Amino acid sequence: MTFKIAAPDDALRPRIQEKIDNLNKPKGSLGRLESLAMQVCMVQQTLEPSLAHPCHLLLGGDHGIEREGVSVSPREVTWQQMVNFTHGGGGVNMFCRQHGFKLRIVDVGVDHDLSSTPGIIDRKIARGTQNFLYGPAMTEEQFGQALNVGVELADDCVAEGCRVLCVGEMGIANTSPSSIWMHLFCHIPLERCIGAGAGLDSAGVRHKYEVLSRSLERYNQLSSLTSHLSPLIYFGGFEMVAAIGAMLRAAEQHLIILVDGFIMTACALAAIQLEPESRHYMVFTHCGDESGHRLMLDAMHAEPLLHLGLRLGEGTGALCAFPIVDSAVRMMNEMNNFKDAAITKYF
Length: 347
What we know:
Oligomer: single chain
Largest sheet: 6 strands, parallel
Radius of gyration: 21 Å
Strand content: 5-15%
Order of helices and strands: HHEHHEEHEHHHHHEHEHHH
Helix content: 40-55%
Strand order of the largest sheet: 3-2-1-4-5-6
Distance between the termini: 51 Å
């Protein structure tokens, strides 16, 4: 699958800046809101931006590496939480209701039969990935399927008039592939990329490091025997690859992409590896409490909007940050300028 993603046309930038500078305020006094407004206007190529029909994709999938005890939570929590989301009882449900996001709950690879569960979109590729301690997590065909799931979901949102897309995940043990992607793409020592996930103690973190180290050794051995072995295919989760597909299609369609915590930042990192220009469309919403998230953000030169110590996932941090992006857009559309307000410029 190929994407046609280009950086926003820079020709409009001076006019956007002129509008921002002539709002009835001291120049630069609204700080980060001003740079956010610039980003949104550039993405949408307009002086009157919109965050119409915000959508949230909640993607579920299980991971074979969970069998190695790298998470404090067992894999059945994935499907149990997916069902809970359909009842409106999750953190993601609360924030979607609060901020007016349409929520789509999607089974991309949960190790449970959810096909008859009302409220869950069935896009299951397999009942979880393979254990990457011993070999690739998925096949190239499955990677393409997962990528296409994300593309189609993003297209559905665009068809409804969506201008801002948020992506979240539900998948026990998905901090493990995220840590490995961070290590490989950011060239950060593996031990600095690994954290407690859902709540591992120090012994659990050490065990996780040992498992992931052995997995990387196996990957490097196999890579030396083949001309191409993608770490996205070898270590990824179905829900993570679908997130990459959704982000890339959203960038192609000039949507604002709200990037959530550690896992979704790793997916954004992977998307940028595939299509570097997709970076222009991403708003990094928060720095989570997972060890390594700040390091990954720093490596990407990304400055998050919030730092609230969050590590729930599901896209909840991104949803929490949405009002800040909304304020930047409202500043552009609702704030008066010096001329119309008959106020003398005082800067």
